Amino acid sequence: MKISGKNQSILKGSLMPLICVAILLTGIGGMSLLAQTKPSPPKKPPAQKEMAVSSIPVTKQTAPVTAVGYGQATPVREDVISPRVSGIVMEKNPGLDPGGRVEKGEFLFKIDATDYQIDAEKASIQVALRKNQIEQLKISFKKDKDRLSAVQDNTRLAQKEFSRLKKLYENSRVGTISARDSAEQTYNSLLDTEKNLKKALVLYPLQIAEARANLADEKADLKAARLDVERCVIYAPFAGRIKKNNIEIGSHVSTGMSALTLCDDDILEIKVPLSDREAFETLNIGTDANFPGRVDIHNLTCRVESVSSRENESIKAAIHRVIEYDSESRTLSLAVRVQGKDMTGMAFPIMDGMFCKTIFTGPVIENLVKIPANALNSNNTVYLDRNHLLKTLEVTPVITNGDDVYVTGSQFLPNDRIITTTLNNPLENIKLAPTWDKNPVPLPGNRQKELALYKEEVK
């Protein structure tokens, strides 16, 4: 069959798209076949990420154990001066303002003594009267003794006369009844006088003893009255600083009131509480000689510095005694004393009321590792750079000294380095890219070479 030219053009136009699609599908299939038959390249392991850290070398040192406590300084001697008599203040020392200093025996203030002087004069007069009474009793005693002897003689004579007259009258009717009765009356009168004198002589010693007792009591009253006069003038019992002043000229003071507060700043005491661990583990405090490993408190040295002042000056101090152990807070309180003479030359000496830091120094411990305080984790571990891998090591803090901590640990290796960079839960054994601290801890000579080789290896 013969196709016309027009029909031939139509047929050619409809076949061309089909041919193109067939060629395209053939190419895609060939490429897919080639991709499946080509061998795959070997897989590369993922690159491990390195952590950049700063570190310092591990150096073993010898250092004494220390513990730090805080407390407030107070004077060892502080007295409240109270008047022992009442009255109006007539005069006072012009230097009694708070902060002023007075010497021992220096005049402080004076109370009106007029009433007390009158009482003393009355007591003195009463003593003199009582002495006169005793002398009168002694004289009367002596006179009555002599009188008794004469009365006894007269009584015997009167008795004889009465007996004679009575006998004459009754036997011979000589004399009169009135003469006999008169002689009897005289005898009885003398007999009564003798009896009364004997009673009086018995009472005289008792009266004299009573008068002497009253004299002693009145002398005591006189002494008390004179003491009251003396107590109207008050003097400083010791040299010290005026802490409080509650008196003014013309004001009334009463017995026992707080007039002045005087304190001695030459010796200050600080009550310093230490925890169980600090006292018995760190400082190893003990008092029994049967435990030679224990340290007596008097063999510990300590220094005190004021936290209240900006000047970080410390002075030597001494542990005076153990005050108490508080079972609730589990703390041992020590009394630390500071001498005023040791504060000479300080920019601002420690004063009453200042809050102070006390540093106790105990026995020396060897093989300690000094690390920055920020390198010690809260769970008492440190991070190490060990052969460029991160390791976690448990340590025991022994000494805290400002920004540094001394620790002990048995697992430190010679080439270990302590990581000083703050890390938050790092992965164990992660690879490290260490840098170097600007101010590393000085190394002994035999480790300088190791450090140089280590740096070269890292590079």
CATH topology category name of the largest domain: Helix Hairpins
The average pLDDT score comes to: 82
Count of domains = 5
Poorly predicted runs: 438-451
Description:
The protein is of the alpha+beta class and 459 residues long. The protein has five domains: 1-38; 54-61 and 366-458, conserved putative lor/sdh protein from methanococcus maripaludis s2 fold (Beta Barrel); 65-70 and 263-365, Efflux pump adaptor protein, beta barrel domain (Elongation Factor Tu (Ef-tu), domain 3, Beta Barrel); 83-112 and 232-258, RNA polymerase II/Efflux pump adaptor protein, barrel-sandwich hybrid domain (OB fold (Dihydrolipoamide Acetyltransferase, E2P), Beta Barrel); 115-231, Helix Hairpins, CATH 1.10.287. 37% of the residues lie in helices and 32% in strands. The chain is built from five helices and 19 strands. The chain has helices at residues 5-37, 114-172, 177-231, 276-282, 445-458; strands at 51-57, 60-81, 87-92, 101-102, 107-111, 233-235, 240-245, 252-253, 260-275, 301-306, 314-326, 331-339, 355-372, 381-386, 389-394, 396-401, 404-408, 417-419, 432-436. The strands form three sheets. It has a six-stranded antiparallel barrel. The relative contact order is 0.17. Residues 438-451 have low confidence and may be disordered.
Task: Summarize this structure briefly.
The protein contains five helices and 19 strands. It has helices at residues 5-37, 114-172, 177-231, 276-282, 445-458, and strands at residues 51-57, 60-81, 87-92, 101-102, 107-111, 233-235, 240-245, 252-253, 260-275, 301-306, 314-326, 331-339, 355-372, 381-386, 389-394, 396-401, 404-408, 417-419, 432-436.
